[in-house]
């Protein structure tokens, strides 16, 4: 079966065939939840805000202008919904269980980390990033979003996104090095 692009399903939903929105939810639910979880740091709140993000997207679908990718537009809704929720509540609880580590992240060069432990180390290191750093890394490396798209999601300038991504990569490198040193010392 041929997979259609997002615009096909969006047009169907706008035309009144609302059941097609389930495709959008299924395709993006993991990333939307992961962004919400990192920003809100609470699983229940993240589930609620992820659902709220999809409801907002569904209700506003007719306003989607296709100037950016649909995923960028949806992630922006998610990010803003979660930031608004954070302003209402100040709770902190970190988890990176929902992030899927893939081979595409290899470009960050994790060669020094044994392959069998790579996912564990990366998730642990990601959990130590601040929410804005985590969101940038997630969108850029795990969701293949461009700097321009991330800029639209976060409201940061393109150059600011690049600087923050650079700093987040540096921080990940330091965190991973420390984790590896601790493991080597504990073995000795």
From TrEMBL:
Q: Which domain of life is it from?
A: Bacteria
SUPFAM superfamilies, per the entry: Sigma2 domain of RNA polymerase sigma factors, Sigma3 and sigma4 domains of RNA polymerase sigma factors
Offer one example of a GO biological process linked to this entry.
DNA-templated transcription initiation
Arranged from A to Z, the UniProt key words for this protein are:
Sigma factor, Transcription, Transcription regulation
Q: Which sequence ranges are marked TM in the entry?
A: none
Does the keyword section mention Transcription regulation?
A: yes
Molecular function (GO) terms for this protein are: DNA binding; sigma factor activity
Residue ranges of domain RNA polymerase sigma factor 70 region 4 type in the record? 121-172
Instruction: Please give the Pfam families that the UniProt record associates with this protein.
Output: Sigma70_r2, Sigma70_r4_2
The record places domain RNA polymerase sigma-70 region at 25-90
Question: Is-annotated flag, keyword Transcription regulation?
Answer: yes
Task: Family membership, please give it.
Answer: Belongs to the sigma-70 factor family. ECF subfamily.
Q: What is this protein called?
A: RNA polymerase sigma-70 factor, ECF subfamily
Where does this protein come from, organism-wise? Mariniphaga anaerophila
């Amino acid at each position: 079966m041929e997979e259609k692009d997002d615009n096909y399903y969006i047009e169907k939903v706008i035309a009144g065939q609302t059941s097609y929105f389930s495709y959008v939810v299924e395709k993006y639910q993991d990333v939307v939840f992961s962004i919400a979880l990192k920003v809100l740091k609470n699983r229940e709140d993240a589930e609620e805000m992820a659902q709220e993000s999809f409801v907002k997207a569904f209700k506003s679908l007719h306003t989607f202008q296709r100037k950016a990718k649909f995923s960028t537009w949806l992630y922006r809704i998610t990010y803003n919904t979660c930031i608004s929720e954070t302003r209402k509540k100040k709770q902190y609880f970190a988890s990176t269980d929902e992030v899927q580590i893939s081979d595409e992240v290899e470009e960050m060069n994790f060669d020094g980390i044994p392959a069998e432990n790579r996912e564990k180390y990366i998730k642990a290191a990601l959990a130590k990033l601040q929410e804005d750093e985590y969101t940038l890394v997630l969108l850029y490396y795990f969701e293949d979003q461009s700097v321009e798209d991330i800029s639209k999601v976060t409201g940061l300038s393109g150059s600011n996104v690049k600087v923050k991504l650079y700093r987040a990569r540096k921080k990940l490198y330091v965190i991973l090095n420390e984790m590896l040193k601790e493991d080597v010392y504990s073995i000795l």
